[in-house]
Specification:
The chain is of the alpha/beta class. The chain is about 45% helix and about 15% strand. The chain contains twelve helices and nine strands. Strands 1, 2, 3, 4, 5, 6, 7, 8 and 9 form a nine-stranded mixed sheet that branches. The longest helix is centred in the last third of the chain and has 24 residues.
Length: about 375
């Protein structure tokens, strides 16, 4: 009942011009929700996605790393153009963190090398603690192609790997993807374009499920550009497809490498801090990668639990810092997580098919662990954290 009251209130506000959500968006939510409450939750999600596409609004990301809808912010500041034309396109370094999934990494690197134009440099951050990655890179290296640098990292964690890749890049413009993704042939061209247009900003793009995949986490298929500059939210940055200013990201501390964010939600934390600092973040659908399906159903459930634990650590970090801007995001995740548990249990739906099935309980576990971690880090620093 609360959900319908909330949506109807949003619909009335949008119709009178006082709300920040389009009436068509709210109608899509309402129609999808009715079907879900009738016990057809899976069809509800698909119906809602279809309706949003019909009404010209954003599609739903298939990971719970997506946050509540936020209004478009003020336009990001494009790079100035001169009378003589556009400034020279920047050279691009590509960062690919890997834990040694060799077959997937081969496809990933091959797609990057074949981009037209090719990147200036590829940095592979290897956390496999073996030699297979270096052997693969030696096999793929061509004197006529881009330089491929392998950075062997004795640690673990996607935040640590991405930070190392950024610090090892020789160019300020860095395009990041992951070892289980392949990129579009024009990926580097689009990376150069968006870096030119929004210098010092972060641009993220479409992460599509590979052909034939049943379900792939952390994907987004929307074809509508979005500007999140001027909002404070999370879940709108897709780290498997992003173009960043190396110096700007490292200036705000890079990705948080604390253990609680080692495997998940490090992107949400950077997104939140980046937007809170008033920086430019845009979603550009012309920037495209494909995320490949390799997990079993059991592994998908485990992945969703890991995501929820990381999300809890993210919330705990900012709650401990007394940043009240995090509260609406937390409430949204808890409500949707609880609803998914109830509806999914009534329907006896498979757990792997809905990332939010693991959100409610595992998120609370993550918050408890993350709070203990925040206190421990606070004591080690000897001062109260600031965010």
């Amino acid at each position: 009942a609360w959900w319908f009251r909330y949506q109807l209130g949003a619909l009335r506000a949008g119709a009178t011009g006082r709300g920040n959500r389009q009436p068509s968006y709210v109608l899509a939510e309402l129609q999808g929700g009715v079907v879900g409450l009738l016990g057809e939750y899976g069809r509800s999600v698909r119906r809602t996605n279809a309706l949003r596409g019909t009404h010209g609004t954003d599609a739903v990301a298939t990971s719970f790393e997506a946050s509540p809808p936020v209004p478009p912010g003020p336009a990001g500041t494009p790079a100035a153009r001169t009378d003589t034309g556009s400034p020279a396109a920047p050279a691009v370094s590509v960062v690919v963190p890997t834990i040694g999934r060799i077959d997937l990494l081969r496809e990933c690197l091959t797609s990057v090398i074949r981009c037209d134009p090719a990147p200036d440099q590829i940095v592979v951050v290897d956390q496999s603690h073996g030699t297979d990655v270096a052997d693969l890179v030696a096999e793929l290296t061509d004197s006529a192609g881009p330089q491929i640098l392998v950075m062997a990292d004795v640690g673990r964690g996607i935040a640590r790997a991405t930070n190392l890749g950024l610090r090892s890049s020789r160019n300020d413009t860095v395009a990041v993807t992951h070892d289980d993704c392949t990129v579009a042939p024009d990926w580097i061209r689009e990376a150069r374009r968006v870096a030119q247009t929004y210098p010092g900003g972060i641009v993220t793009g479409r992460v599509l499920p590979a052909d034939g995949a049943r379900y792939v986490p952390s994907t987004i298929v929307s074809q509508q550009p979005r500007n999140y500059t001027g909002t404070v939210t999370s879940g709108v940055l897709y780290p498997a497809n992003m173009v960043v200013s190396r110096d700007a990201v490292l200036e705000i501390g890079g990705f948080d490498e604390r253990p609680g964010l080692m495997l998940a939600a490090e992107d949400n934390d950077l997104c939140f801090r980046w937007l809170a600092a008033g920086r430019v973040l845009r979603y550009e659908p012309a920037l495209v990668v494909w995320h490949h399906d390799w997990r079993t159903e059991t592994e998908l459930v485990r992945t969703h639990i890991v995501y929820a634990h990381g999300q809890g650590a993210f919330y705990a970090k900012h709650l401990y810092a007394r940043d009240r801007r995090i509260l609406p995001l937390l409430r949204w995740d808890l409500r949707h997580g609880l609803r998914s548990v109830i509806v999914g249990s009534l329907r006896r739906a498979p757990r792997w098919d809905d990332p939010y099935r693991e959100m409610f309980g595992s998120l609370l576990v993550g918050i408890a662990r993350g709070t203990r971690e925040a206190r421990r880090l606070d004591r080690s620093r000897g001062s109260r954290p600031q965010g």
